[in-house]
Amino acid sequence: MFTTLRRLTALALFALMPLAAPVTANAFETRATAAWVYDMTTQTVLMDKNADTPVPPASMSKLMTLNMLFEALRDNRVTMDTTFAVSTRATEMTRLGGSTMYLQENDRPSVRELIHGIIINSGNDACVVVAEGLAGTEEAFADLMTERGKAIGLSHSTFRNASGWPDPNQRMSMRDLGLLGKRLIEEFPDLYPIFSETQFNYKDRAPANANNRNPLLKIAAADWQADGLKTGHTTEAGYGLVGSAVMGDRRVIFAMTGLASDKDRASESEAIVNWAFRQFTEKTVVKSGVRVADAQVWLGAADSVGLVPAEDIRLLLPSQVQEQVTAEVIYNGPVEAPIAKGAQLGELIIHVPELPDARVPLVAESDVAKGGFLKRLTAAAGVLRARYIDAAPAAAPAS
Q1: Predicted confidence (pLDDT) per residue in 275-285, tens digit
Q2: Does the active-site annotation cover 62?
Q3: 122 flagged as catalytic
Q4: 75: Cβ–Cβ under 8 A, 6 or more apart, which residues?
């Protein structure tokens, strides 16, 4: 048997897909210098603009500080009631300017208070307290952040401090920030709701600084609701946001940076969420068990076996190009019998304009037993014929 990669164009596949009349959709041209938009429900990247470029993350890098603290909670190294000391270095962050929780050296804030101070107040001082409380020094903590970041898949991130304070070696990409936000949502569902809280005023010290800066939390949209994550701003970075919002069963997360003002950040983040939810449609393109192709079988009781998806195939489709979706089936064949129903034999590759290809496993629709003696004899004869008779050079014509 000679196994070769088979490619079958599945032209009939989308005749099975009920499509509504396409609605005109416009590509979104963001004003951000870098952005990454991701539909968590369907695992679809909707936008990638310089998403892997390491840039100054400003306070958005506080998400990594929170991840480190959340992991310490999960591992029982600290509890929500654990208290940390406040060093002179931490209080100096308030004197240097920037966002603060207004901690003082005689304070002993709890982990619960520090989480709120970082998420809601964006407290640089709170980040230093956490860093020193977990690692002894902020420098050691930053090294741990970089090491841990690589371990969880942040490929374009390096850290030199816990707060996002400007440093030429403090860098993150928008994809890394989005993936980090995704991790916080998925890994820490009991802590994530804190990101949607709008006010925290530690010991009533700064009512003017008590409000969550995330502009999406102020929007009362009729069909979607934002619930996180973190803003950022420095002169070098511009204005940025890692945001997340939910509409029905869908969740969208995004990271963007480089906006000129907080007003631009607010309007751009709302526009991105509206575009992501309203210009893409989630559809079941093929039901589980529906045959999309046939694979040739070698030495089987049947000459072919149907290839079917084991589960419903649901895709996020740009509404304006739904009728331009194409697909192909690939498998190594012919497939040698016996074949068990449900065994993965191939893959369906779905090409969606403007989005990455979707790759879906295909399994055997039914069992195929080995063929009998006559079947094997016939197959062997066919191989011999292919090798020695059909491949033999033709005799020279008689002169």
Answers
A1: 999 988 888 88
A2: yes
A3: yes
A4: none
